[in-house]
Specification:
Layout lengths: L6 E5 L5 E7 L7 E4 L2 E6 L8 E7 L3 E9 L13 H8 L13 E5 L23 E15 L5 E12 L3 H8 L8 E4 L6 H9 L5 H7 L13 E4 L4
Antiparallel strand pairs: 1-2, 1-7, 3-6, 4-5, 6-9, 7-8, 8-9, 10-11
C-alpha cells in the first residue's frame, strides 16, 4: 500500500462527503487531541474537600501543523505562490453563503485507525468510525520564504479543529439507559408516543407519562426532530 495522505472533506448537513477532498501536500508530523469534561465543586461545610459532580462533556479539539512548499516549481519571476495551496485550507474557516456558517468538515488519515476507534465494549458505541468530524476553529498562517518579487513560496498552517456532533448522534452514542434517570429521544418521522413508550418502557400505555412531561396537548401530531424528555417510571 502506498503513502496515504491526510485530507479534509467537506460534509453536508447529513454528514455525507460533498465535493473533492483537500489533500495535504505533506503529512503532519504530529497531531494533538484534547478532550475534557466540566466538573462542578459542591461545597459542603465541614468537609475537607468539596464534592465533585460531573456536569457535561466538552467538545474535543484536534490541532496540527500543515507544511506547504512550491519551490520545486521555481523561485524566479514565474514562481508559483504557495497560497495556491494554502488558500484552499484557509477558506474552510470562511462563511459559506449557502449555509451562513463555515462548512462542516471531516479530517481523515488512514483507514479505521484514527484515535478513538478502538474502544472497549462498554464504550464501543462512542468510538469513532473513521476520521474526525469538525468545524475549523482557527487557521494561523506563517509564511517563511519569498521570491525576489515578494511571492510567498513556503508556509506552515497551524490548524485547530473542534469536533462536531449532532444531538441525534450523541443520544445514539451515549444510549443512556439507567431506569432511574431521565432520558432523551429525538422523534423520527412516523413515530408515535405509543411506539416510543413501548421502546423505552416496554409498555405502550405509558405514552401519557411522556405527554405530560413534555406538555404535549396533541399526542397524534408530533413534529419529527422534536426532543422529548423521558422521565423514569416505577
Amino acid at each position: 500500500m502506498g503513502l496515504q495522505k491526510a485530507q479534509i472533506r467537506r460534509l453536508n448537513n447529513k454528514l455525507a462527503p460533498t465535493g473533492a477532498a483537500l489533500e495535504v501536500q505533506f503529512n503532519p508530523t504530529e497531531l494533538t487531541l484534547n478532550k475534557g469534561v466540566q466538573i462542578a465543586e459542591v461545597a459542603i461545610p465541614g468537609l475537607d474537600a468539596p464534592i465533585l459532580q460531573f456536569v457535561r462533556g466538552q467538545s474535543e479539539t484536534l490541532t496540527l501543523d500543515l507544511f506547504f512548499d512550491t519551490t520545486d516549481e521555481g523561485t524566479g519571476e514565474k514562481a508559483t505562490p504557495v497560497t495556491t495551496r494554502t488558500d484552499k485550507f484557509y477558506q474552510l474557516i470562511k462563511i459559506d453563503g449557502d449555509i451562513h456558517a463555515p462548512p462542516i468538515c471531516r479530517f481523515i488519515w488512514g483507514d479505521h485507525e484514527f484515535p478513538g476507534s478502538h474502544f472497549d465494549a462498554n464504550w464501543a458505541s462512542q468510538q469513532r468510525e473513521n476520521g474526525f468530524d469538525c468545524l475549523v476553529e482557527s487557521v494561523r498562517q506563517r509564511f517563511t520564504m519569498f521570491s525576489s518579487q515578494g511571492v510567498p513560496l513556503r508556509a506552515t498552517l497551524s490548524v485547530s479543529l473542534r469536533e462536531y456532533k449532532t444531538l441525534k448522534k450523541q443520544l445514539q452514542q451515549l444510549n443512556l439507559m439507567s431506569p432511574d434517570h431521565t432520558r432523551s429521544h429525538v422523534v423520527q418521522r412516523g413515530e408515535t408516543l405509543n411506539k416510543i413508550a413501548d421502546q423505552y418502557y416496554e409498555d405502550s400505555t405509558q405514552w401519557r407519562v411522556i405527554a405530560e412531561a413534555n406538555n404535549i396537548l396533541n399526542p397524534l401530531n408530533i413534529e419529527p426532530g422534536t426532543l422529548l424528555e423521558l422521565p423514569p417510571i416505577e
